Amino acid sequence: MKQYNQQSSFENETKKPKFIADMMLGRLARYLRIFGYDVLYFQKISDGDLVNKAESESRIVLTRDSSMIRRSPFKYGRVKFLFIRDDKVLKQLKQLVKELNLELKINLIRCIECNHILEKVDRENAKGKVPVYTYKSTENFAYCSNCDKYYWEGTHLKLMNKRFSFLLKEKDN
Question: pTM of the entire structure?
Fold first, then answer.
């Protein structure tokens, strides 16, 4: 069970860049979803299928595969990409903030697991599906109909914002 930020905003969803991450960047994809970004990720996808999906959906490819970016769609600018230089997710996020000017603020509007938009649900719908204490102490819930998971706002969201606050400060410098 995941947590959900009730103050999430869907209105800026169309202004944010959309991504597709290669199979080496699953953890980065999950983190970007926590920040509200539309990030496709497939554990098994060919380079050609990934490139075609990126091109057809106007997505930026995030990759650690140096051979992939030598393909003609990248060389001739048909598909945008960012080569991710580091293995560590915090350094990857730092690169995205610096190079794409991304805003990293917790905004759980997407399922962390599958990328589907979360649906706000009545509290009663969460009864018996979330821990008892959470049900009693929380008013707002969201649900992923694809994964059958419930999300709610919890204390770890504040801790995550604090953990990533250094990235926001670096963006301002």
Answer: 0.84
